[in-house]
Amino acid sequence: MSLKTVRTLVTTAAAFLLLIGCGSEESTPDPQEPVARPIPATPPKEARTGLNTIVEKMDPDGKGMHLTATSPEGKQFNASIGDDIEIPEEFPKDVPIFPGSTPMAFLSAPDEGIIVTFKSREEQQDIFDFYQSSLADDGWEILEDSILGKRLSFDAIKDNRKVSVTVAGTKGDARVSVIVTPED
C-alpha cells in the first residue's frame, strides 16, 4: 500500500469521523408540538478536502450516514455507519460473518481493502473461536493471536490477502472488526 494511498484513506476516515461527530444536539420537544415529526429529506452534501471530493448522504430516518470520497484519479472510497447498513458487495465471500451479528459500519477502498464492524450479543470467546475455525476451514493460514485486556485479535493470510479480526466488548455488547487487505 503506497504512502499516498494510506494518507488518502486516513484523511477520508478522519473526515468521516468528524462528520459523524457533527450531529445536532437533541432538544426537549415543546409540549404543545406533536412528538413524531417527519424528518425532512436531506440532500447529499459535497465538500472538498485537499484533493478529494467528499459526498455525505444521511439516511432518511436520520439513523445512518454514507460517505463517498473520490480521489483526483477517480478512485472512490466508501464508508457507512448506522443502525441498518448492508455489507458491501466487495466484502470477500471466503471471509465469514458471525451468525446473528449486525453490520454497523464499513470503510472500503478499491485495491486497498475493506473494514467492516459488526455488533453481536454473543460471548467474545465464542465469536473469536468461530472466526479462527471458519477461516482455517476455508484455507486461511491462522497467524499468531493476541489478547490485550478484553480485546482478542488475530491475523490470517490466504493467497495474496490478509484478514485481521478483533473482538472486543462484553456479552450482550460485543464488537467485531474485520479488516481485509491485499498483501504487498
Helices and strands, with pairings:
Layout: H1 3-20, E1 45-49, E2 52-58, E3 64-70, E4 76-82, E5 102-109, E6 113-120, H2 124-137, E7 141-148, E8 151-158, E9 161-170, E10 173-182
Secondary structure tally, helices: 2
Uncertain stretches: 1-41
Approximately what portion of the residues adopt beta-strand conformation? 35-45%
CATH C-level class of the largest domain: Alpha Beta
Q: Give the strand order, joined by hyphens, for the main sheet.
A: 1-2-3-4-5-6-10-9-8-7
Q: Assign the structural class, choosing from mainly alpha, mainly beta, alpha/beta, alpha+beta, or little secondary structure.
A: alpha+beta
Q: Number of domains in the coordinates?
A: 2
What percentage of residues falls in helices of 4 or more residues?
10-25%
- CA radius of gyration: 19 Å
The biggest sheet, with number of strands, parallel, antiparallel or mixed sense and barrel status, is: 10 strands, antiparallel
What name does the CATH topology of the largest domain carry?
Alpha-D-Glucose-1,6-Bisphosphate, Chain A, domain 4
* General shape: globular
Label the CATH architecture of the largest domain.
2-Layer Sandwich
How far is the first residue's CA from the last residue's CA?
7 Å
Quantity of strands, as a count: 10
